[in-house]
Amino acid sequence: MKLENLARADLSIQQAREHPSPWMIVWIALKSHKGALVGAGVFSFIVLAVLVGPLFYTVDPQLTDYAVRNQGISWQHPLGTDNIGRDMLAQVLSGGRIALAVGFAAMLLSLFLGTVVGVIAGYYKRLDGPLMRLTDLFLAMPLLPLLLVIILLFRDALRDIFGLEFGIFILIVFVIGITSWMQTARIVRGETLAIKEREFVLAATSVGTSGLHIISTHILPNILSPIMVSATLGVASAIITESALSFLGLGFPSDFPTWGRLLYDGAPWIGIDSTNWLVRVFAPGIAISLTVLSVNYIGDALRDAIDPRVRNK
């Protein structure tokens, strides 16, 4: 009896190693990848700083004080002030909340569209061709001009309906989401094609189980790992895209602090004899870089963890 229990335990351990759960994959990725540990720590610090920091550093990022404009680093203003006296640290923290909100919201939209298209294309053979050609069409489009055109066409209408800030937020999330789902769709389609030939899916099909039930019960739980990787990389891509749009002046209003807008406002001061131009440029730039790098490190570790050739080394 003891030998039988030991054999079952060994079999369970072997199955867990060969087919780990999504949370086990996250743990494997973090503990075996030093860059992922550092990235997770840095990203956690950034998230806590931008979410909890304003509770302790209560300076209004919109408050202007011309008496202290263009000041350097000091105890009162740890990152100095801009040319109209606004506190740079308060603006960086506020911009971080916007960047994370846009990043996660756009990632969820992109992930939803990519997963739906990929699963349907992989499971239903008659829809595979049209959906993949649609994916190729989106991949062939020049994304930056497309983003600019969509924003210019719908910015005023959404601003009138939802308000200035929330309308721009919805538009940016929508634009980034509908232009970044294609890679996820291709990955999910490939995984779906492989899983639908497995024995448990063939058995479910043979007893008359509906396609929707098979997708929700058998296919989706088995493709969560590549979806998790796409999610991490999607957050980084969305933050970069939002920062680029704000830098070009097509994101949030000019008086609304975002990391891209802070870079745009600080760029003209490069080379000018100002006491804080270095901080004004590097503070939002480093915030963007650290956030994107940390998320990418986590995504790379997850990608290594789901690769059996790497995981079994």
Elements, N to C (H/E): HHHHHHHHHHHHHH
Strand content: under 5%
The average pLDDT is 79
* Rg, Å, rounded: 24 Å
CATH superfamily of the domain at 104-311: MetI-like
Distance between the termini: 33 Å
Overall shape: elongated
Describe the largest sheet. Answer: none
Instruction: Specify the CATH class of the domain at 104-311.
Output: Mainly Alpha
| Helix fraction by DSSP (H/I, runs of at least 4) | over 70%
How many strand units?
Answer: 0
The name of the CATH architecture of the domain at 104-311 is: Orthogonal Bundle
What's the helix and strand layout?
Blueprint: H1 2-18, H2 22-31, H3 34-56, H4 88-123, H5 125-140, H6 143-162, H7 164-178, H8 182-195, H9 199-206, H10 211-219, H11 224-247, H12 259-266, H13 277-306, H14 308-311
Helix pairs in contact: 2-13, 3-4, 3-13, 4-5, 4-7, 4-8, 4-11, 4-13, 6-7, 9-10, 11-12, 11-13, 12-13
